[in-house]
Specification:
Blueprint (H helix, E strand, L loop, with lengths): L2 H10 L23 E10 L2 E11 L2 E10 L3 E6 L9 E2 L2 E2 L5 E4 L2 E14 L2 E12 L1 E5 L2 E4 L3 E11 L4 E2 L7 E4 L24 E6 L12 E11 L11 E4 L2 E2 L3 E2 L3 E7 L2 E9 L6 E5 L7 E3 L5 E6 L4 E5 L6 E5 L1 H4 L4 E3 L3 H4 E6 L4 E6 L1
Length: 362
C-alpha cells in the first residue's frame, strides 16, 4: 500500500462513526454487465476495520489518496493539501478571487461550507469549499474515470470535541449514500453521476467482505464494488429485499430504514443506517434506556427486522460485532448505526434512480 494510506490510518480509527450527515434500465438478457467492477482495500487495526477506495487522479494531477468508502454519507470530501498550490491554503480558508478559480483542472468556487461526521460524543468537522473536477477512481488493479463532478474540497479538519486539528488527508471520504451532502445540496455520491446507458440503472452493488482479508497492511480485494445495476441485480430471484427511501429537505433521500431492534430481551423501534464508514461498533439508540451508555457483553444476541422484512441476527464477541447501547439524548443522534461488520455477512445495493436500498443475507 502506498504512503498516503498509512498517513490516514491512525486518525480514522478514532472516527467511530462516519455518517451523514434518470431512467430505469429496460429488461435485457442475463448477460448485461455492470458499467465497471472495482476492487477495494480492506484494512484493520485492532477491532477497527476500514474499507478504502483509491483516487489516482484529480483534475489534471496524478495522485494516490485512499478515501473511506462510506455508505453512511453522500458526496466526496477531499483535503486540498497536495492538490492545489500551498499558497492558496491559509488558516482562514482557501483563497478564491471572485466567484471561482481554476487550478490544476479543478474549479474551486467561493461557496464555503462545513461537513460534519459523527455525533455529540465524537464529532469531526471539515471546513472548505464546493469544487468541481474529474476523478479516476481505483488504481492499477482496476479503475474508472468520472466526468466533471462536484465535491467538497476542505482545507482543515477538526475534532470538535477535543478542538484539535487532524492531519491532512486523514478524513478523506467517498460518501456513496443516496442523498446529497450536508455540506451542499450540489454534491452527491460520485457513483451517481455515471452515465450507465439504457440497459443499466444508476447505482452500485457491494459484495460481502471477507473477514480474513482485513489486514494491517491493507489488502486489495478485487470485484467488491459493481457500478451500474443490471436488471438481474434487482430481480426477486437474486434475493435482495428492496427498501424504498424517504425524502428529506435537508439531505435528499435518506439511507435510514425503519426497523425493530431486539437485544437481550429488549426491543425498540429504530431508524437503521447500514454504514461502511463505521469502523468497529454498532450503536443502538434506545430513548427508553435511562442508563443506556455502555457496551453489550460478549455473547449477546442482536436482531434487526426492517419494515420490508429483511432480518439479520448476530452475536457479539470480544473482538467483533461490538455493540453499544446509547440514549439519543446523550449522542444527539436518533439513528441506530450498524458497523462494517454487518457487510461481512450481508450484500448491499443502492439504486439512485428508484431511491431504494437492497439488503441480502449471505
Amino acid at each position: 500500500m502506498k504512503k498516503h494510506l498509512f498517513n490516514i490510518l491512525w486518525s480514522v480509527v478514532f472516527l467511530m462513526v462516519i455518517t451523514s450527515c434518470k431512467k430505469e434500465g429496460t429488461t435485457t438478457s442475463a448477460t448485461t454487465k455492470n458499467l465497471a467492477t472495482l476492487g477495494l482495500y480492506q484494512y484493520s487495526s485492532g477491532t477497527s476495520k476500514r474499507l478504502f477506495i483509491p483516487i489516482t487522479k484529480v483534475g489534471t494531477q496524478a495522485v494516490t489518496y485512499y478515501t473511506v468508502f462510506d455508505t453512511g454519507s453522500s458526496g466526496l470530501s477531499l483535503d486540498a493539501t497536495g492538490i492545489i498550490p500551498a499558497s492558496m491554503i491559509t488558516p482562514d480558508g482557501i483563497q478564491v478571487t471572485g466567484d471561482s478559480v481554476n487550478v490544476n483542472g479543478i474549479t474551486i468556487t467561493s461557496k464555503t461550507s462545513v461537513m460534519s461526521y459523527g455525533d455529540a460524543t465524537n464529532l469531526t468537522k471539515q471546513y472548505g469549499n464546493v469544487a468541481y473536477a474529474t476523478f479516476t477512481l481505483g488504481d492499477a488493479n482496476g479503475n474508472i474515470s468520472t466526468k466533471r463532478i462536484p465535491f467538497f474540497l476542505y482545507y482543515k479538519v477538526m475534532n470538535d470535541v477535543t478542538n484539535t486539528q487532524l492531519p491532512a488527508h486523514s478524513v478523506d471520504i467517498m460518501g456513496v449514500g443516496p442523498g446529497t451532502s450536508y455540506a451542499s445540496t450540489l454534491i452527491a455520491s460520485p457513483l451517481s453521476y455515471f452515465d450507465v446507458g439504457a440497459n443499466l440503472t444508476q447505482g452500485f452493488r457491494l459484495a460481502t467482505l471477507n473477514p480474513s482479508s482485513f489486514t494491517s497492511a491493507g489488502n486489495y480485494v478485487g470485484g467488491l464494488l459493481s457500478i451500474g445495476l443490471t436488471p438481474t441485480d434487482k430481480a426477486t430471484s437474486t434475493g435482495f429485499i428492496m427498501h424504498p427511501l424517504s425524502y428529506t429537505t435537508s439531505g435528499g433521500y435518506s439511507p435510514n430504514i425503519p426497523a425493530t431492534i431486539t437485544y437481550n430481551g429488549t426491543s425498540t423501534s429504530a431508524q437503521v443506517l447500514f454504514d461502511t464508514g463505521n469502523p468497529s461498533q454498532t450503536i443502538i439508540e434506545n430513548p427508553k434506556e435511562t442508563n443506556a451508555v455502555g457496551n453489550l457483553p460478549a455473547n449477546s444476541t442482536v436482531k434487526v427486522v426492517t419494515n420490508m422484512g429483511f432480518t439479520y441476527t448476530y452475536t457479539t464477541t470480544s473482538t467483533a460485532n461490538l455493540t453499544t447501547i446509547q440514549n439519543p439524548n446523550n449522542t444527539n443522534d436518533y439513528r441506530t448505526i450498524f458497523s462494517l461488520d454487518f457487510f461481512i455477512n450481508n450484500e448491499y445495493l443502492t439504486d439512485y434512480t428508484s431511491h431504494e436500498i437492497g439488503l441480502k443475507n449471505k
